[in-house]
Design a protein that fits this description.
By secondary structure, the chain is an alpha/beta fold. The chain has 13 helices and 10 strands. The chain binds S-adenosylmethionine (SAM).
Length: 315
């Protein structure tokens, strides 16, 4: 990044923060799909206190044009549209802390996966985003991790549209894959050779297999629900069966480096958008949850990519 850009980078986030606090982003997101608004229309919805609406409209226009130049919203000569991205709506983190609630639920009135079940377009976008991230992370894991050797049936719990399982079964041709996720998610999944898609709720049951794989699933859940899910996994695998979990594992002490920041960024994303009690955890915390569910505990196998680790819980 050029020095000048680096020195002024904070102005983008400060302007975005002000636009969010003024409700401009919520007004734009709340407008019917694709409906553009003028700066005057936006200024008319500002919280009481703008002494001069015309002046305020001119400032709103300049702020949004600046944000449009960073791709946050879109501007024509007269009007503004967007953003498409719900995470840019007003944040409720402080409220969530004080009220003991989840910020996403305050903003949207329901937990994240229920909301996605009612918004197929957003769900498709989320599944695609997860799939793209997983392609990178799973590819790196498959370069070095050998824990899939000898498995006949592998169940991917919370497997989304089956990207990880597709990559695993194309390397391990003898594995039959079962991709298990919520019914509205597997209904969006395309057929994958060697993989069966099954819809259901992992907190009710987990389909049987020789081993369970799950990536970025335990971090969604409270400790109590993790143990419930891990007990379902325990019942689903035979003696000597195992769970192979991929998660961003928190170091006990934060490290102020670019790589060191990543797990803590993910943890704050869980705090804002996750389910109640969802969080990133240390290796010791995962070991305790696994033991509480009947497993032998967590073995950290490999740090793979972008802070992700593979943890194996054996019976
Ligand atoms: C963070 S995504 C991870 C997706 C995939 N494992 C990956 O890493 O690309 C979490 C997944 O858990 C699924 N999920 C959430 N609650 C679930 C439940 N109760 N039963 C089954 N799947 C669930 C979501 O639909 C989503 O696909």
């Amino acid at each position: 990044m050029a020095a000048q850009e680096l020195m002024t980078a904070h102005i983008v986030s400060m302007t975005l923060k002000a636009a969010m606090e003024l409700g401009l982003i919520d007004t734009l997101t709340g407008a019917p799909a694709g409906r553009a608004l003028t700066a005057d229309e936006l200024a008319a919805k500002l919280p009481a206190g703008a002494t001069n609406k015309a002046e305020a409209a001119a400032v709103v226009d300049r702020m949004l044009r600046f944000l449009a130049s960073h791709g946050v919203v879109r501007c024509s000569a007269e009007e503004v549209t967007g953003p498409d991205s719900p995470p840019l709506r007003r944040h409720h983190l402080a409220e969530a802390l004080l009220e003991g609630r989840v910020a996403f639920e305050i903003a949207h009135g329901m937990p994240a996966f229920e909301y996605m079940g009612k918004n197929p377009q957003l769900s498709a976008l989320y599944n695609q985003a997860m799939s793209q991230l997983s392609t990178l992370v799973c590819g790196k894991m498959l370069e070095s991790f050998t824990g899939f050797d000898g498995i006949g049936i592998l169940v991917d719990v919370g497997g989304g549209i089956g990207t990880n399982l597709g990559m695993i079964t194309s390397k391990y041709k003898n594995i039959k894959g079962i991709n298990f996720d919520l019914p509205f998610v597997v209904s969006q999944a395309k057929p994958i050779p060697g993989v069966e898609h099954i819809g259901g709720d992992m907190l009710d049951y987990v389909p049987s297999g020789d081993a369970i794989f799950m990536k970025s699933v335990l971090h969604l859940l409270s400790d109590e629900d993790c143990v419930k899910l891990l007990k379902n996994c325990y019942r689903a695998v035979p003696d000597r069966g195992k769970v192979i979990a991929m998660e961003v594992v928190l170091p006990v002490t934060p490290e102020a480096t670019q790589a060191g920041r990543f797990p803590f960024l993910f943890d704050i994303i869980c705090l804002i958008n996750g389910l109640k009690g969802g969080k990133e955890r240390t290796e010791q915390e995962y070991a305790r949850l696994a033991t509480d569910a009947g497993f032998n505990g967590a073995i950290r196998s490999t740090v793979t990519f972008g802070g992700f680790s593979v943890l194996e819980f054996t019976k």
